[in-house]
Amino acid sequence: MPTFRTIKSLTQCLKGYRTAGLRVGFVPTMGFLHAGHRALIEESVARCDITVVSLFVNPTQFGPNEDLDRYPRALEADHDLCRTAGVNLIFVPDASEIYPPGFQTYVEPGPVAEPLCGAVRPGHFRGVATVVTKLFNIVQPDVAFFGQKDFQQCAVIRQLVRDLNLPIEIVTVPTVREPDGLALSSRNSYLSAADRARARCLSRGLFAAHAAFQAGERDSQRLVETAQAQMTEVDQLQYLQLVDARTLEPILGSVEQPAALCVAACVGTTRLIDNVLLIPPPQALADHELELVSHVIGRQATAGAAGPRPS
Ligand code: AMP
After folding, report:
1. Which one, out of 43, 150, 271, 272, has a CA that is 20 to 30 A from the CA of 116?
2. CA 146: distance to chain centroid?
3. Cα-based angle 202, 208, 210 (whole degrees, multiple of 5)
């Protein structure tokens, strides 16, 4: 499977595919791939003729005291996963290929990037929006695939594509979880066995809120409290917020629109995020909200499985 380190070599190859009229799917990642990434790749392979995966630990989305230097890497294992999953091309640029000397232009997202992770990690989504825009311009995919686990990232990217008129379809793929509910993440490799056991309380809390919502609870504060009651084992709860699924504005009072309950917490020194969607039944939604649901959660909405899947 061809692996490209330079933009020039990658774009030359992709030009041939485009000329042949093939549909290109793109899965941007930071590597250290797991079954969550694999789900994105499989979705692309199913929907597109060609699947491109990028492996790039993007320095501009890390804060000065974050884990850029120790972010896990496993290039060979990543190759194996890509090969067995049906990837056609891998793009593994050096940082200097993406940010050559003299680089100075950034993409600044709007209010959708301000709450939640945006408030805890200043500049993070500016780095994400910038690198994703650059990768989109380099790969020029027809479709790009992102995981629901990074819910705010999905919202930022959808907004970016709308605002900048990028001709790219964005597909959100549901979160893949460990059998006990923990959302898969490359950062789970930082967890000690004891921390790993404690981390479980995050998904337990989200699922408890989801179950309450399914049973008819609509009061946002009670839903948050239901989740929080389970999340006592983490060292620091950075945020636990119920937000509008499109704007990410907080929902106060009754949840009548598609919503996401989002959490970020530190377990030991590891920062974890997770979320669950709370979608009122279709008959309770206005037409434009129904459209939003399919827009936000893609195939989940049509499959009727908007809730968590703690398999
Ligand atoms: P990352 O390598 O962490 O930057 O993630 C690359 C892509 O994989 C992003 O779109 C993530 O949302 C997605 N992703 C990461 N973990 C999961 C998961 N557990 N389930 C589904 N998608 C995921």
Report:
1. 43
2. 5
3. 105
Quick: pLDDT tens for 85-134.
999 999 999 999 999 999 999 999 999 999 999 999 999 999 999 999 99
- Domains, the chain: 3-173 (3.40.50.620), 186-300 (3.30.1300.10)
pTM of the model: 0.94
Phi/psi for 153 (5° steps) reads -60, -45
Which residue minimizes the CA distance to atom 14 of ligand 1? Answer: 147
Give the residue whose CA is nearest to atom 5 of ligand 1.
29
Mutate to test the pocket of ligand 1, among 26, 27, 29, 42 (most ligand atoms within 8 A of CB): 29
Closest residue to atom 22 of ligand 1, CA basis: 147
Strand-pair partners of 263 = 240, 274
Cα 284 to middle of ligand 1, angstroms: 31
